[in-house]
């Protein structure tokens, strides 16, 4: 039995980052959608880790992004710390608080990303709340993301009804704005979100905030089927996945990606920065090995 690291080396050798002739309809090919196309052609499920920028510091965040990129991440979600993180559970809230206390701010995060994004294979998806975008100005904000190499954007408090003001200018710059489907969403709202979401659809697996849970609710399988009936866009499942077995479960239910946040944030925060980096490397390898 190969170790996770040996397994991932074979996996990476077999799956170069390139354009595959797989027809993906209804959305423009971008770095994110192109990555999903490559994975689909090999029947692989994407792994999307989440970490909080600036916890324990931005230098460690830069190293963590590279470590994840080298140990099985297909895309990486990078959270910008915010003082009122309504969608985040206690682990990520605590990380954001620590980062803010050390002076982490958006410009510093983007400067850090600009230094490492060109050397990474995994597209970076920025996670931020809507208010900082409005304060900076949508056009200015998106141009900054494009300039530093950010490929996607998740805005958890962006109302569907207001999303068009962000979706159109982002698409022109090649940035995917990923919209979220909640477990409580109606069939009509699911269809509307599926039509507008770019890159992939983010299915929230639980009602409430992010956090580690012992099992994934079975209704996720039904919601996945419901989304599949109205779109062929990739679907990522997040909120609550903390173990390789859970990631494997959502893959078996038909998800195109497993999104894992609090479990990475916790490991990176425990012990010294180097111990945290070693822990997320091992964890990332084990998650990816479970879903290819």
Strand order of the largest sheet: 5-4-3-2-1-9-8-7-6
What is the number of beta strands? 9
User: Can you give the mean pLDDT?
Assistant: 88
| Beta-strand content bin | 5-15%
Helicity range of the residues? 40-55%
Radius of gyration (Å): 17 Å
Helix/strand class = alpha/beta
Shape: globular
Largest sheet: 9 strands, parallel
In short:
The chain is an alpha/beta fold and 292 residues long.
SSE blueprint and pairings:
Layout: H1 4-14, H2 31-41, E1 46-52, H3 58-70, E2 76-79, H4 90-101, H5 106-116, E3 124-127, H6 130-136, H7 138-148, E4 152-154, H8 164-172, E5 176-178, E6 180-181, H9 187-196, E7 201-204, H10 219-228, E8 235-238, H11 244-252, E9 257-260, H12 262-269, H13 273-291
Parallel strand pairs: 1-2, 1-9, 2-3, 3-4, 4-5, 6-7, 7-8, 8-9
Helix pairs in contact: 1-13, 3-5, 3-13, 5-7, 11-13, 12-13
Protein described:
InterPro entries: Aldolase_TIM, RibuloseP-bd_barrel, Trp_synthase_alpha_AS, Trp_synthase_suA. Keywords: Amino-acid biosynthesis, Aromatic amino acid biosynthesis, Lyase, Tryptophan biosynthesis. Its EC number is 4.2.1.20. The chain has helices spanning 4-14, 31-41, 58-70, 90-101, 106-116, 130-136, 138-148, 164-172, 187-196, 219-228, 244-252, 262-269, 273-291; strands at residues 46-52, 76-79, 124-127, 152-154, 176-178, 180-181, 201-204, 235-238, 257-260. The protein has a nine-stranded parallel β-sheet with strand order 5-4-3-2-1-9-8-7-6. Helix 1 packs across helix 13 (273-291), helix 3 packs parallel to helix 5 and helix 12 packs antiparallel against helix 13 (273-291). By secondary structure, it is an alpha/beta fold. The chain contains 13 helices and nine strands. Residues 1-28 and 207-214 have low confidence and may be disordered.
């Amino acid at each position: 039995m190969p170790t996770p690291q040996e397994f991932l080396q074979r996996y990476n050798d077999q799956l170069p980052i390139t354009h595959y002739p797989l027809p993906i309809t209804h959305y423009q090919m971008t770095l994110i959608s192109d990555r999903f196309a490559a994975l689909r052609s090999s029947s692989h499920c994407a792994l999307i880790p989440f970490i909080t920028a600036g916890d324990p510091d931005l230098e460690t965040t830069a190293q963590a992004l590279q470590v994840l990129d080298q140990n099985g991440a297909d895309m990486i979600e990078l959270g910008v710390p915010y003082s009122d993180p309504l969608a985040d559970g206690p682990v990520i809230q605590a990380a954001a608080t620590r980062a803010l206390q050390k002076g982490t701010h958006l410009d510093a995060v983007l400067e850090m990303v600009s230094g490492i994004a060109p050397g990474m294979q995994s597209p970076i998806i920025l996670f931020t709340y809507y208010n900082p975008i409005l304060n900076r100005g949508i056009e200015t904000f998106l141009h900054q993301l494009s300039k530093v190499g950010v490929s996607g954007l998740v805005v958890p408090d962006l109302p569907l009804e207001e999303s068009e003001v962000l979706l159109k200018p982002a698409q022109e710059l090649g940035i995917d704005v990923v919209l979220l489907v909640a477990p409580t969403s109606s069939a009509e709202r699911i269809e509307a979100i599926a039509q507008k979401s770019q890159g992939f659809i983010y299915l929230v697996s639980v009602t409430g905030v992010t956090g580690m849970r012992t099992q994934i609710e079975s209704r996720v399988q039904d919601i996945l089927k419901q989304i599949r009936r109205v779109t062929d866009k990739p679907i990522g499942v997040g909120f609550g996945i903390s173990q390789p077995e859970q990631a494997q479960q959502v893959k078996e239910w038909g998800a195109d990606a497993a999104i894992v946040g609090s479990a990475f944030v916790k490991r990176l925060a425990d012990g010294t920065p180097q111990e945290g980096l070693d822990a997320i490397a091992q964890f990332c390898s084990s998650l990816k090995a479970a879903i290819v």
